[in-house]
Amino acid sequence: MNELRNKDEQYNQYLYKHKKNSKNKGGFGRLITGLLLTAIVLIVAAFAFIGIAGMDNKYSKMLMSFVKDLNPKAQKGFNLPLLQHKQNILVVGVDSNGKGTDPFKGTRSDTMILVNIDPASHSINAISIPRDSKVYLAGDHGVQKINAAHALGGIELTTRTIEDTLGIKIDKYVVVNNDGVKKLVDALDGVPVYIEKDMYYNDNAGGLHINLSKGLHVLNGEQVEGYLRFRKDGLGDIGRTSRQQWFVKAVLEKLQSPAIIPKIPEVLNIASTYVKTNLSLYEMSHLAAALRNIDMNDVEFATLPGAPSKKGYISYWILDPEKTQEVIDRMVYRTKPSPSDKKLVAGIMYAFDKEEEAMRVKDELKNSGYEVNCIGRAHLPHSQIIGHNSAVTSDFVSWLKKQVPEIKSSQFVYDPIRMYCVHSDFTIIISGS
User: Fold this and answer.
1) Is the domain of 75 the same as that of 179?
2) Which of 78, 154, 325, 427 could form a disulfide with 347 if both were Cys (CB 3.0 to 4.6 A apart)?
3) Phi and psi for 283 in degrees, rounded to 5?
4) Predicted TM-score of the model (pTM)
Protein backbone atom coordinates (compact mmCIF):
# COMPACT_ATOMS: atom_id res chain seq x y z
CA MET A 1 0.00 0.00 0.00
CA ASN A 2 2.86 2.39 0.81
CA GLU A 3 4.32 1.70 -2.63
CA LEU A 4 1.01 2.57 -4.29
CA ARG A 5 0.76 5.78 -2.26
CA ASN A 6 4.31 6.72 -3.25
CA LYS A 7 3.54 6.11 -6.92
CA ASP A 8 0.39 8.18 -6.56
CA GLU A 9 2.31 11.11 -5.05
CA GLN A 10 5.05 10.77 -7.66
CA TYR A 11 2.53 10.86 -10.47
CA ASN A 12 0.79 13.93 -9.08
CA GLN A 13 4.16 15.71 -9.23
CA TYR A 14 4.60 14.41 -12.76
CA LEU A 15 1.30 16.07 -13.69
CA TYR A 16 2.93 19.30 -12.33
CA LYS A 17 -0.04 20.41 -10.29
CA HIS A 18 -2.83 18.82 -8.36
CA LYS A 19 -6.34 20.21 -8.20
CA LYS A 20 -9.41 19.15 -6.29
CA ASN A 21 -10.60 15.79 -7.48
CA SER A 22 -13.89 16.04 -9.34
CA LYS A 23 -16.62 13.59 -8.45
CA ASN A 24 -16.60 10.61 -10.77
CA LYS A 25 -20.01 10.00 -12.30
CA GLY A 26 -19.18 6.72 -13.97
CA GLY A 27 -20.40 3.45 -12.55
CA PHE A 28 -19.69 -0.05 -13.79
CA GLY A 29 -18.61 1.27 -17.16
CA ARG A 30 -21.05 2.22 -19.82
CA LEU A 31 -21.82 0.55 -23.08
CA ILE A 32 -18.63 0.29 -25.12
CA THR A 33 -16.53 -2.28 -26.77
CA GLY A 34 -12.91 -1.69 -27.05
CA LEU A 35 -11.12 -2.08 -30.29
CA LEU A 36 -11.58 0.75 -32.23
CA LEU A 37 -8.61 0.32 -34.35
CA THR A 38 -11.13 -1.79 -36.25
CA ALA A 39 -12.89 1.33 -37.43
CA ILE A 40 -9.90 2.99 -39.01
CA VAL A 41 -8.84 -0.24 -40.69
CA LEU A 42 -12.34 -0.79 -42.01
CA ILE A 43 -12.28 2.66 -43.56
CA VAL A 44 -8.80 2.05 -44.95
CA ALA A 45 -9.89 -1.32 -46.33
CA ALA A 46 -12.76 0.42 -48.06
CA PHE A 47 -10.44 2.85 -49.77
CA ALA A 48 -8.03 0.10 -50.68
CA PHE A 49 -10.98 -1.24 -52.69
CA ILE A 50 -10.70 1.75 -55.01
CA GLY A 51 -7.32 0.51 -56.12
CA ILE A 52 -8.79 -2.92 -56.85
CA ALA A 53 -12.09 -2.01 -58.47
CA GLY A 54 -11.12 1.25 -60.18
CA MET A 55 -12.57 4.75 -59.88
CA ASP A 56 -15.50 4.07 -62.19
CA ASN A 57 -16.94 1.32 -60.02
CA LYS A 58 -20.20 2.32 -58.31
CA TYR A 59 -18.79 1.47 -54.88
CA SER A 60 -15.74 3.64 -55.53
CA LYS A 61 -18.00 6.58 -56.40
CA MET A 62 -19.93 5.93 -53.20
CA LEU A 63 -16.67 6.06 -51.24
CA MET A 64 -15.71 9.37 -52.79
CA SER A 65 -19.11 10.86 -52.02
CA PHE A 66 -19.04 9.53 -48.45
CA VAL A 67 -15.76 11.18 -47.50
CA LYS A 68 -16.71 14.46 -49.13
CA ASP A 69 -19.89 14.61 -47.08
CA LEU A 70 -18.21 13.39 -43.90
CA ASN A 71 -15.41 15.92 -43.78
CA PRO A 72 -15.52 18.54 -46.53
CA LYS A 73 -12.91 20.81 -44.91
CA ALA A 74 -10.33 18.05 -45.09
CA GLN A 75 -10.26 18.33 -48.89
CA LYS A 76 -7.84 21.24 -48.51
CA GLY A 77 -5.15 18.87 -47.27
CA PHE A 78 -5.15 16.62 -50.30
CA ASN A 79 -1.83 17.99 -51.50
CA LEU A 80 -0.07 17.04 -48.24
CA PRO A 81 1.12 13.41 -48.33
CA LEU A 82 0.34 11.71 -45.04
CA LEU A 83 3.24 9.35 -44.93
CA GLN A 84 6.28 11.54 -45.53
CA HIS A 85 6.99 11.40 -41.80
CA LYS A 86 5.86 9.55 -38.68
CA GLN A 87 2.20 9.93 -37.81
CA ASN A 88 0.31 9.55 -34.54
CA ILE A 89 -3.34 8.63 -35.01
CA LEU A 90 -5.57 8.51 -31.95
CA VAL A 91 -8.39 5.97 -32.12
CA VAL A 92 -11.11 6.54 -29.52
CA GLY A 93 -14.17 4.48 -28.69
CA VAL A 94 -17.00 6.29 -26.92
CA ASP A 95 -20.09 5.05 -25.12
CA SER A 96 -23.73 5.66 -25.99
CA ASN A 97 -26.10 8.14 -24.35
CA GLY A 98 -29.13 6.28 -25.62
CA LYS A 99 -31.21 6.07 -28.75
CA GLY A 100 -31.75 9.32 -30.62
CA THR A 101 -28.86 11.20 -28.97
CA ASP A 102 -25.76 12.67 -30.59
CA PRO A 103 -23.31 9.72 -30.72
CA PHE A 104 -20.32 11.99 -30.02
CA LYS A 105 -21.62 14.58 -27.55
CA GLY A 106 -21.24 14.15 -23.79
CA THR A 107 -20.00 10.57 -24.17
CA ARG A 108 -17.10 9.11 -22.22
CA SER A 109 -14.21 7.41 -23.96
CA ASP A 110 -13.80 3.80 -22.94
CA THR A 111 -11.09 2.81 -25.39
CA MET A 112 -8.06 4.83 -26.48
CA ILE A 113 -5.39 3.47 -28.77
CA LEU A 114 -2.52 5.61 -30.01
CA VAL A 115 -1.32 4.30 -33.38
CA ASN A 116 2.16 5.31 -34.54
CA ILE A 117 2.98 4.76 -38.21
CA ASP A 118 6.62 4.96 -39.31
CA PRO A 119 7.04 5.00 -43.12
CA ALA A 120 10.83 4.68 -42.87
CA SER A 121 10.66 1.26 -41.20
CA HIS A 122 7.27 0.31 -42.69
CA SER A 123 6.03 -0.51 -39.22
CA ILE A 124 3.11 0.21 -36.92
CA ASN A 125 3.10 0.49 -33.13
CA ALA A 126 -0.06 0.66 -31.01
CA ILE A 127 -0.29 1.89 -27.41
CA SER A 128 -3.38 1.21 -25.32
CA ILE A 129 -4.22 3.99 -22.85
CA PRO A 130 -6.16 2.58 -19.87
CA ARG A 131 -9.44 4.47 -19.40
CA ASP A 132 -8.87 4.69 -15.62
CA SER A 133 -5.53 6.50 -16.00
CA LYS A 134 -5.32 9.37 -13.51
CA VAL A 135 -4.32 12.51 -15.39
CA TYR A 136 -4.61 16.29 -15.27
CA LEU A 137 -7.23 17.18 -17.87
CA ALA A 138 -6.32 20.04 -20.18
CA GLY A 139 -8.31 23.24 -19.95
CA ASP A 140 -8.23 23.56 -16.17
CA HIS A 141 -10.60 20.62 -15.58
CA GLY A 142 -8.57 19.20 -12.70
CA VAL A 143 -7.32 15.69 -11.98
CA GLN A 144 -9.68 12.98 -13.18
CA LYS A 145 -9.76 9.70 -15.06
CA ILE A 146 -8.71 10.23 -18.64
CA ASN A 147 -12.00 8.85 -19.95
CA ALA A 148 -13.80 11.96 -18.62
CA ALA A 149 -12.05 14.20 -21.16
CA HIS A 150 -14.34 13.31 -24.06
CA ALA A 151 -17.51 13.86 -22.00
CA LEU A 152 -16.29 17.31 -20.94
CA GLY A 153 -14.75 18.57 -24.15
CA GLY A 154 -15.05 16.03 -26.93
CA ILE A 155 -12.17 14.76 -29.03
CA GLU A 156 -10.46 18.16 -28.81
CA LEU A 157 -10.06 17.97 -25.01
CA THR A 158 -9.14 14.28 -25.23
CA THR A 159 -6.41 15.02 -27.76
CA ARG A 160 -4.97 17.95 -25.78
CA THR A 161 -4.98 15.92 -22.55
CA ILE A 162 -3.09 13.02 -24.11
CA GLU A 163 -0.63 15.39 -25.77
CA ASP A 164 0.05 17.18 -22.47
CA THR A 165 0.32 13.97 -20.47
CA LEU A 166 2.59 12.07 -22.85
CA GLY A 167 4.49 14.95 -24.43
CA ILE A 168 3.56 14.02 -28.00
CA LYS A 169 1.73 15.50 -30.99
CA ILE A 170 -1.39 13.78 -32.27
CA ASP A 171 -1.75 14.26 -36.02
CA LYS A 172 -5.14 12.70 -36.71
CA TYR A 173 -8.02 11.08 -34.87
CA VAL A 174 -10.79 8.56 -35.42
CA VAL A 175 -13.73 8.44 -32.98
CA VAL A 176 -16.18 5.56 -33.09
CA ASN A 177 -19.41 5.20 -31.14
CA ASN A 178 -19.94 1.87 -29.39
CA ASP A 179 -23.14 1.04 -31.28
CA GLY A 180 -21.22 1.35 -34.53
CA VAL A 181 -18.60 -1.18 -33.42
CA LYS A 182 -21.24 -3.83 -32.80
CA LYS A 183 -22.77 -3.12 -36.20
CA LEU A 184 -19.35 -3.28 -37.88
CA VAL A 185 -18.64 -6.68 -36.32
CA ASP A 186 -22.00 -7.97 -37.53
CA ALA A 187 -21.29 -6.55 -40.99
CA LEU A 188 -18.15 -8.71 -41.02
CA ASP A 189 -20.29 -11.78 -40.19
CA GLY A 190 -18.56 -11.98 -36.84
CA VAL A 191 -14.94 -12.14 -35.74
CA PRO A 192 -13.07 -15.27 -34.61
CA VAL A 193 -11.84 -14.84 -31.02
CA TYR A 194 -10.22 -17.28 -28.63
CA ILE A 195 -11.93 -16.79 -25.26
CA GLU A 196 -9.39 -17.54 -22.56
CA LYS A 197 -11.86 -18.49 -19.82
CA ASP A 198 -15.56 -18.97 -19.18
CA MET A 199 -17.18 -15.54 -18.84
CA TYR A 200 -20.54 -15.27 -17.11
CA TYR A 201 -22.01 -12.05 -15.78
CA ASN A 202 -25.48 -10.53 -15.51
CA ASP A 203 -26.31 -6.91 -14.77
CA ASN A 204 -30.04 -6.42 -15.28
CA ALA A 205 -29.92 -2.75 -14.32
CA GLY A 206 -27.14 -2.04 -16.80
CA GLY A 207 -28.54 -4.30 -19.48
CA LEU A 208 -25.35 -6.34 -19.66
CA HIS A 209 -25.56 -10.13 -20.02
CA ILE A 210 -22.36 -12.07 -20.71
CA ASN A 211 -22.47 -15.81 -21.36
CA LEU A 212 -19.31 -16.94 -23.13
CA SER A 213 -17.53 -20.27 -22.82
CA LYS A 214 -13.82 -20.91 -23.14
CA GLY A 215 -12.55 -21.74 -26.61
CA LEU A 216 -12.41 -20.42 -30.15
CA HIS A 217 -15.68 -18.81 -31.26
CA VAL A 218 -16.91 -16.52 -34.02
CA LEU A 219 -18.46 -13.71 -32.00
CA ASN A 220 -21.25 -11.43 -33.19
CA GLY A 221 -21.46 -7.76 -32.20
CA GLU A 222 -23.35 -8.32 -28.96
CA GLN A 223 -21.00 -11.11 -27.88
CA VAL A 224 -17.96 -8.97 -28.69
CA GLU A 225 -19.35 -6.27 -26.42
CA GLY A 226 -19.59 -8.75 -23.56
CA TYR A 227 -16.10 -10.13 -24.20
CA LEU A 228 -14.53 -6.68 -24.16
CA ARG A 229 -16.54 -5.36 -21.21
CA PHE A 230 -15.89 -8.32 -18.93
CA ARG A 231 -13.96 -7.22 -15.83
CA LYS A 232 -14.67 -9.90 -13.23
CA ASP A 233 -11.35 -11.71 -13.60
CA GLY A 234 -9.17 -9.91 -11.06
CA LEU A 235 -7.49 -7.85 -13.79
CA GLY A 236 -10.15 -5.14 -14.20
CA ASP A 237 -9.38 -2.51 -16.81
CA ILE A 238 -5.98 -3.98 -17.69
CA GLY A 239 -7.58 -7.33 -18.49
CA ARG A 240 -9.96 -5.55 -20.83
CA THR A 241 -7.04 -3.70 -22.42
CA SER A 242 -5.30 -6.99 -23.20
CA ARG A 243 -8.48 -8.36 -24.74
CA GLN A 244 -8.75 -5.23 -26.88
CA GLN A 245 -5.27 -5.91 -28.26
CA TRP A 246 -6.03 -9.58 -28.99
CA PHE A 247 -9.29 -8.58 -30.63
CA VAL A 248 -7.58 -5.92 -32.76
CA LYS A 249 -5.23 -8.56 -34.11
CA ALA A 250 -8.10 -10.93 -34.92
CA VAL A 251 -10.06 -8.23 -36.76
CA LEU A 252 -7.05 -7.00 -38.73
CA GLU A 253 -6.29 -10.54 -39.88
CA LYS A 254 -9.87 -11.00 -41.07
CA LEU A 255 -9.83 -7.66 -42.88
CA GLN A 256 -6.93 -8.80 -45.04
CA SER A 257 -9.26 -11.24 -46.80
CA PRO A 258 -10.73 -10.27 -50.21
CA ALA A 259 -14.09 -11.37 -48.76
CA ILE A 260 -14.36 -7.92 -47.17
CA ILE A 261 -14.87 -6.20 -50.54
CA PRO A 262 -18.59 -7.00 -51.05
CA LYS A 263 -19.30 -5.74 -47.55
CA ILE A 264 -17.89 -2.26 -48.16
CA PRO A 265 -21.26 -0.55 -48.93
CA GLU A 266 -22.71 -1.74 -45.61
CA VAL A 267 -19.55 -0.68 -43.79
CA LEU A 268 -19.78 2.78 -45.29
CA ASN A 269 -23.40 3.19 -44.22
CA ILE A 270 -22.38 2.35 -40.66
CA ALA A 271 -19.30 4.57 -40.73
CA SER A 272 -21.25 7.60 -41.96
CA THR A 273 -23.28 7.55 -38.72
CA TYR A 274 -20.93 6.15 -36.11
CA VAL A 275 -17.45 7.27 -37.19
CA LYS A 276 -16.00 10.77 -36.80
CA THR A 277 -12.56 11.51 -38.25
CA ASN A 278 -10.41 14.35 -39.59
CA LEU A 279 -8.67 12.02 -42.05
CA SER A 280 -9.25 13.03 -45.66
CA LEU A 281 -9.76 10.68 -48.60
CA TYR A 282 -6.23 11.39 -49.76
CA GLU A 283 -4.83 10.52 -46.34
CA MET A 284 -6.91 7.37 -46.13
CA SER A 285 -5.61 6.23 -49.49
CA HIS A 286 -2.05 6.61 -48.19
CA LEU A 287 -2.97 4.59 -45.11
CA ALA A 288 -4.53 1.93 -47.31
CA ALA A 289 -1.34 1.59 -49.32
CA ALA A 290 0.74 1.41 -46.15
CA LEU A 291 -1.42 -1.18 -44.38
CA ARG A 292 -1.98 -3.56 -47.26
CA ASN A 293 1.54 -5.00 -46.95
CA ILE A 294 1.79 -5.03 -43.15
CA ASP A 295 2.04 -8.39 -41.40
CA MET A 296 -0.22 -8.04 -38.38
CA ASN A 297 2.07 -10.30 -36.36
CA ASP A 298 4.72 -7.58 -36.68
CA VAL A 299 2.56 -4.84 -35.14
CA GLU A 300 4.03 -4.03 -31.73
CA PHE A 301 1.56 -3.44 -28.89
CA ALA A 302 2.04 -1.85 -25.49
CA THR A 303 -0.08 -0.56 -22.63
CA LEU A 304 0.89 2.50 -20.62
CA PRO A 305 2.54 0.95 -17.55
CA GLY A 306 1.42 1.67 -14.04
CA ALA A 307 -0.34 0.22 -11.00
CA PRO A 308 -3.92 0.16 -9.68
CA SER A 309 -4.92 2.44 -6.83
CA LYS A 310 -8.25 2.97 -5.13
CA LYS A 311 -9.37 6.06 -3.24
CA GLY A 312 -12.78 5.61 -1.71
CA TYR A 313 -15.00 4.10 -4.37
CA ILE A 314 -12.92 5.40 -7.29
CA SER A 315 -10.35 3.09 -8.90
CA TYR A 316 -7.45 4.68 -10.75
CA TRP A 317 -4.60 3.45 -12.91
CA ILE A 318 -1.54 5.37 -11.69
CA LEU A 319 0.90 5.71 -14.56
CA ASP A 320 4.55 5.00 -13.79
CA PRO A 321 6.31 8.18 -15.04
CA GLU A 322 9.65 6.60 -15.90
CA LYS A 323 8.24 3.47 -17.51
CA THR A 324 5.60 5.48 -19.36
CA GLN A 325 8.31 7.72 -20.81
CA GLU A 326 10.25 4.62 -21.78
CA VAL A 327 7.23 3.29 -23.68
CA ILE A 328 6.70 6.63 -25.44
CA ASP A 329 10.36 6.92 -26.41
CA ARG A 330 10.29 3.43 -27.83
CA MET A 331 6.87 3.28 -29.47
CA VAL A 332 6.42 6.87 -30.68
CA TYR A 333 9.88 8.39 -31.04
CA ARG A 334 11.39 5.03 -32.07
CA THR A 335 14.45 5.54 -29.85
CA LYS A 336 17.03 2.81 -30.38
CA PRO A 337 18.96 1.37 -27.41
CA SER A 338 22.72 1.75 -27.17
CA PRO A 339 24.65 -1.23 -28.60
CA SER A 340 25.53 -3.84 -26.00
CA ASP A 341 27.47 -7.09 -25.96
CA LYS A 342 25.17 -8.50 -23.28
CA LYS A 343 23.21 -11.51 -24.45
CA LEU A 344 19.50 -11.28 -23.83
CA VAL A 345 17.96 -13.71 -21.36
CA ALA A 346 14.71 -15.50 -22.16
CA GLY A 347 11.91 -16.97 -20.11
CA ILE A 348 9.37 -19.46 -21.43
CA MET A 349 5.82 -20.01 -20.17
CA TYR A 350 3.71 -22.70 -21.82
CA ALA A 351 0.24 -24.22 -21.65
CA PHE A 352 -0.21 -27.67 -20.18
CA ASP A 353 -0.55 -29.33 -23.58
CA LYS A 354 2.47 -27.55 -25.09
CA GLU A 355 5.40 -28.95 -23.12
CA GLU A 356 7.01 -30.65 -26.11
CA GLU A 357 6.84 -27.45 -28.18
CA ALA A 358 8.23 -25.43 -25.25
CA MET A 359 11.25 -27.75 -25.00
CA ARG A 360 11.91 -27.37 -28.72
CA VAL A 361 11.80 -23.59 -28.36
CA LYS A 362 14.16 -23.78 -25.39
CA ASP A 363 16.66 -25.87 -27.39
CA GLU A 364 16.46 -23.56 -30.40
CA LEU A 365 17.08 -20.52 -28.21
CA LYS A 366 20.10 -22.14 -26.61
CA ASN A 367 21.43 -23.19 -30.02
CA SER A 368 21.17 -19.53 -31.06
CA GLY A 369 23.26 -18.53 -28.06
CA TYR A 370 20.55 -17.30 -25.67
CA GLU A 371 20.18 -18.24 -22.04
CA VAL A 372 16.80 -19.48 -20.82
CA ASN A 373 16.70 -18.67 -17.11
CA CYS A 374 13.29 -20.16 -16.36
CA ILE A 375 10.62 -22.29 -17.94
CA GLY A 376 7.23 -23.05 -16.47
CA ARG A 377 3.57 -23.80 -17.00
CA ALA A 378 0.83 -21.21 -16.98
CA HIS A 379 -2.76 -20.83 -18.16
CA LEU A 380 -2.25 -18.16 -20.82
CA PRO A 381 -4.67 -17.68 -23.74
CA HIS A 382 -2.51 -16.20 -26.51
CA SER A 383 0.95 -16.82 -27.87
CA GLN A 384 3.09 -13.76 -27.33
CA ILE A 385 6.62 -12.48 -27.17
CA ILE A 386 6.79 -9.94 -24.35
CA GLY A 387 9.78 -7.59 -24.25
CA HIS A 388 10.73 -6.26 -20.83
CA ASN A 389 13.53 -3.81 -21.67
CA SER A 390 14.53 -1.54 -24.52
CA ALA A 391 17.12 -3.98 -25.87
CA VAL A 392 14.30 -6.26 -27.05
CA THR A 393 13.59 -4.39 -30.27
CA SER A 394 11.18 -5.21 -33.07
CA ASP A 395 14.19 -5.98 -35.28
CA PHE A 396 15.41 -8.51 -32.73
CA VAL A 397 11.97 -10.12 -32.48
CA SER A 398 11.73 -10.37 -36.28
CA TRP A 399 15.13 -12.07 -36.34
CA LEU A 400 14.15 -14.35 -33.47
CA LYS A 401 10.99 -15.48 -35.26
CA LYS A 402 13.14 -16.62 -38.19
CA GLN A 403 15.38 -18.62 -35.86
CA VAL A 404 12.52 -20.21 -33.94
CA PRO A 405 9.68 -21.17 -36.35
CA GLU A 406 7.32 -22.15 -33.50
CA ILE A 407 6.94 -18.50 -32.46
CA LYS A 408 6.51 -17.03 -35.93
CA SER A 409 2.84 -16.12 -35.40
CA SER A 410 3.24 -14.78 -31.85
CA GLN A 411 2.04 -11.29 -31.07
CA PHE A 412 4.80 -8.90 -29.96
CA VAL A 413 4.01 -6.91 -26.82
CA TYR A 414 6.30 -4.49 -25.02
CA ASP A 415 5.73 -4.46 -21.27
CA PRO A 416 8.55 -3.28 -18.96
CA ILE A 417 6.60 -4.24 -15.82
CA ARG A 418 4.85 -7.57 -16.38
CA MET A 419 7.55 -10.21 -15.86
CA TYR A 420 6.93 -13.92 -15.45
CA CYS A 421 10.58 -14.82 -14.83
CA VAL A 422 12.89 -12.74 -12.65
CA HIS A 423 15.73 -11.13 -14.62
CA SER A 424 14.42 -12.26 -18.02
CA ASP A 425 14.74 -9.71 -20.82
CA PHE A 426 11.85 -11.24 -22.73
CA THR A 427 9.24 -13.92 -22.19
CA ILE A 428 7.92 -16.31 -24.80
CA ILE A 429 4.35 -17.43 -24.10
CA ILE A 430 3.18 -20.60 -25.85
CA SER A 431 -0.58 -20.87 -25.53
CA GLY A 432 -2.68 -24.01 -25.60
CA SER A 433 -5.00 -25.20 -28.31
Assistant:
1) yes
2) 427
3) -70, -40
4) 0.76
